[in-house]
Amino acid sequence: MLIVIVAIAFLGALLVVYLQPLPVVRWLARRHPDVLYFVSLKEKVVALTIDDAPHALVTPQLLDVLNENAAHATFFVIGDHARGNSQILERARQEGHELGNHLAHEYPAVFLPPAQFEKELAEVDRLISPFPPMKWFRPGSGWYNRRMLNQARKGGYRCALGSVYPFDTVMRNRWAISLYIKSQIFPGAVIIIHDGKPYRTRSAKVLKEVLPALKAAGYRIVSLSELVEIAGGES
């Protein structure tokens, strides 16, 4: 009987993690109000964020799809990926997208010592400047602690996570990823998908499916800064 109870509890926890129900996201946002998970909006607007940028093959495809759908995004840049791809980052800026800080390496940022965290934050800061009015930071693997938030804030950054995360680093079927995003969307949501590796050309295919569907449902797709600005205008 105990094994059954434990198994049910475990499966329930997995379901909560997978579905990311809005009450759970709201609870997280209340506990950490300086971390952006979503914004409260009546208007049908969502932010699209793209992690692990840039990539010489994938990012241009993503930019093409965004352009086709008059959509903006926030690209979270890894320093290792940015070197040699400055023209791609400049194209993103010129087309109305914004660049966020995803630190220097693809590594869970919560394990970095304070001095290394500060060094990587500053290193990528130099790579992606100049900035729009808001500066966004996203920790590797989405894990953070209070010390990291304080260090990021001293650098002028606000931490942004998200509320619609389709597990596209592990889920390989683009139709399942697309369905997940469309089924979980709500006004003020922050979507997370991934760039940065050759096989993630599927992210462009996901956006080809998702963006027209969201637009048909009345949604606008914008960057994080644009979403926050719109939310401020409603309040």
Structure notes:
This protein is an alpha/beta fold. The protein has two domains: 1-31; 35-234, TIM Barrel (Alpha-Beta Barrel), CATH 3.20.20.370. It has ten helices and eight strands. It has helices spanning 2-19, 22-31, 58-68, 79-82, 86-94, 114-128, 146-154, 174-184, 201-216, 224-234; strands spanning 35-36, 45-53, 74-77, 98-101, 136-137, 158-160, 190-194, 220-222. Strands 2, 3, 4, 7 and 8 form a five-stranded parallel beta sheet that branches. β2, α3 and β3 form a beta-alpha-beta unit. α3 (58-68) runs parallel beside α9 (201-216) and α8 runs parallel beside α9 (201-216). It starts with a helix and ends with a helix.
Write a compact overview of the structure shown.
This protein has 235 residues and is α/β, with parallel strands linked by helices. It is built from ten helices and eight strands.
Q: Could you tell me the strand content as a percent range?
A: 5-15%
Summarize model confidence as the mean pLDDT.
89
CATH architecture type of the largest domain: Alpha-Beta Barrel
* Rg of Cα set: 17 Å
* N- and C-termini, Cα separation: 51 Å
Identify low-pLDDT runs: 4-19
Tell me the total number of β-strands.
8
Shape: globular
Which labels suit this protein?
globular, five-stranded parallel sheet, alpha/beta, 235 residues, 2 domains
Element layout with pairings:
Layout: H1 2-19, H2 22-31, E1 35-36, E2 45-53, H3 58-68, E3 74-77, H4 79-82, H5 86-94, E4 98-101, H6 114-128, E5 136-137, H7 146-154, E6 158-160, H8 174-184, E7 190-194, H9 201-216, E8 220-222, H10 224-234
Helix pairs in contact: 3-9, 6-7, 8-9
